[in-house]
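Dig into what follows:

_____
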Amino acid sequence: MKTRTEKDSLGEKQVPADAYYGSQTQRAVENYPISGYHAHAKLIQAIAYVKKAAALANRKLKLVPDKIADAIIRATDEVIAGKLNDQFVVDVYQAGAGVSFHMNANEVIANRAIEILGGARGDYSVVNPNDHVNFGQSTNDVFPTSTRLASLLLFDEVVASCEKLEASLARKGKQFDHILKSGRTHMMDAVPVRLGQEFRGYSTAINRAIRALRSAQDFLREVGLGGSAVGTGVNTHPKFQKLVVAELSKVSGQKLIATDDLRYAMQSNLAMSMASSALRNLALELIRIGNDLRLLSSGPNTGLAEIMLPTLQPGSSIMPGKVNPVMAELTAMVGFQAIGADIATALAVQAGQLELNVMMPTMAWNVLHAAEILKNTMRQLAEKCIDGIQANEARCRFYANATISVAAALNPYIGYLAAAEIAKESVKTGRTVTEIALERKLLDDKLMKEILDPIRMTEPEAPIEAARRKKK
């Protein structure tokens, strides 16, 4: 492999001749061969937005020559478009605070800008990674800003997948609204419910998870860009903070807020904790819904079998004809991973010390990874599972008529204890509550049938007037 010689503050270093990155990135590659995972594409895009905004602000403030600033802006546009993603080679587990990833970005942008100006890669007399690309910036404000921006960008996609899943569940709620079944609490028979009501409940849960994601985005919008090393703005122009954040909002298309306390923004990663927590809560709802789908479809002959999930692949290497609830299983596994990512993020968030939290690379990787896998899983769950669910109406109807908890509807008319006696006899004899209640002649037959109508029990209903409770 051909190499070129670069020199940094530690001395000379050999770098691949065709690489856009430089010596500091090469040192990180050699120091941290940990996971093989590299930065999420959204994080690469976000840091390029930050560098573009800084170049625009520095050009307006006459701090970087127009010619150099223009080349930097052109280079960042290429990074934003994803054309140089293969040059971001630093492992996600790296030196604290994200210094290695940040310098990887500075070097890639500098070397591409050098080419744009007609120079050779590595000739930092033309465009310097530190003195030009990074003018007025520090890893300590650039990396957390990039992480928040990347999360904002990816959360928009997560919300879109949530909305797709919410709509799929809502459609099933409407489609299944007429289907009566037994409710279950404590995994035991409960009063009747409509299958459509269950699915509408799932849809609403995803809707509320979307609210949590949007709330987290409000926290992510406050950025500390311009704080420089410790939140004092050292080496920055007095107008730089507001100007660079305004430029960043323009180029990224995200409404960002320049924090009113740069020290807070440097010390605290509350925004990333909020983002991670919103993803965790979404994961918890997805796991719960996926588990319900597995239960409701269990069987087909020895389980609940109230719904039928789409057949996607053979389910066993030894049992012919077996089909498993694979998308619901996938959903649970991805959810577990997202919860694990939240734990790692939480530990990183609390690990800050004084003016800086150096554990930010862990936050960035885990939040973006969790968001990515949840986004993709919800899309597949909607398309490959929810949209194709069918109801076993006969089985649902059988359970609706068989549940002993319909006896609860008798409470306002004959009292809890008398209703409990009917329920116990139903369990003992296998006869339905309706049969036993009619046999006991506690109320007239017409009234009893009306009271014990399972459909009536699936909506709020005032007790039938007292005059009709008397026996004929």
